[in-house]
Specification:
By secondary structure, the chain is α/β, with parallel strands linked by helices. It has a single domain (3-173), classed as HUPs (Rossmann fold, 3-Layer(aba) Sandwich). It is built from eight helices and five strands, in the order H-E-H-E-H-E-H-H-E-H-E-H-H. It has a five-stranded parallel beta sheet, sandwiched between helices. Helix 2 (24-32) links the parallel strand 1 (11-16) and strand 2. Helix 5 packs parallel to helix 6 (130-144). The longest helix has 35 residues, at 178-212. It binds iron/sulfur cluster. Iron/sulfur cluster (SF4) binds next to helix 5 and helix 8.
């Protein structure tokens, strides 16, 4: 069978991609299942704009490498501020609104371009709110008559990390918005503090043992 015949036999699917590293495994597995993904970029959540552009460039380069089409859809940053930012550090409320904005855009593009199947790379990272994302996406797909291709790709996250490092792909250390950047920095500092405290406790224990003997 020729390559173009194989491609034709596949089911076209519009895949919302949050970044290149998180796209590796979904593309691989969805292709194995017989889907032909087209990447849809709609991530107005990524701040600052330089970071957004860097992630988009990385995604574009990866899509090119795989020969996949990439659609850059609306990145309504003002809309994100209006709809999402007000939730501040209320993580669930904020992420729900953020998923809703991005996946609404995905579904709109899918309808305009005649896709019947949609999916998202948000199902890879264990840091995302999986059930909240499912709830938001399902409602949107049901309302638009689209087939949501929902898979739990979280077990593949370590492999995606390994492959993206191996490929020297740009990898960010926070989800995207300024709130997530602050949360991630806080978490990293807490881990550092815990390690420091554990080391100090171990040192103190060794010193006291040496003192006794
Ligand atoms: S943490 Fe991620 S998903 Fe949640 S609001 Fe921020 S950018 Fe959006």
């Amino acid at each position: 069978m020729k390559q173009d015949e194989r491609t034709c036999a596949r089911t076209p699917l519009l895949l919302h991609a949050c970044c290149a590293p998180c796209s590796i495994e979904p593309i691989l597995h969805l292709r194995k299942e017989g889907f032909e993904p087209t990447i849809c970029w709609t991530n107005p959540n990524i701040q600052p704009i330089e970071e957004h552009n860097l992630r988009l460039d990385t995604m574009r380069a990866y899509a090119n490498e795989l020969g996949l089409q990439l659609i850059v859809a609306s990145d309504d940053r003002d809309g994100w501020e209006r709809r999402v930012a007000g939730a501040g550090f209320d993580r669930e409320r904020r992420c729900r609104a953020c998923y809703a904005q991005r996946l609404t855009e995905l579904c709109q593009v899918a309808c305009e371009r005649g896709f019947t199947h949609v999916s998202t790379t948000l199902v890879v990272s264990p840091y995302q709110l999986f059930d909240v994302c499912h709830d938001v996406f399902k409602k949107l797909c049901d309302a638009q008559g689209l087939t949501m291709v929902w898979r739990d790709f979280r077990p593949y996250y370590p492999e995606a990390t390994r492959l993206s490092r191996e490929a020297d792909m740009y990898r960010q250390n926070y989800c995207g918005c300024r709130f997530s950047a602050a949360e991630a920095a806080f978490d990293r500092q807490s881990i550092r503090d815990e390690r420091k405290a554990a080391k100090a406790a171990a040192r103190a224990q060794m010193q006291s043992k040496a003192h006794v003997s």
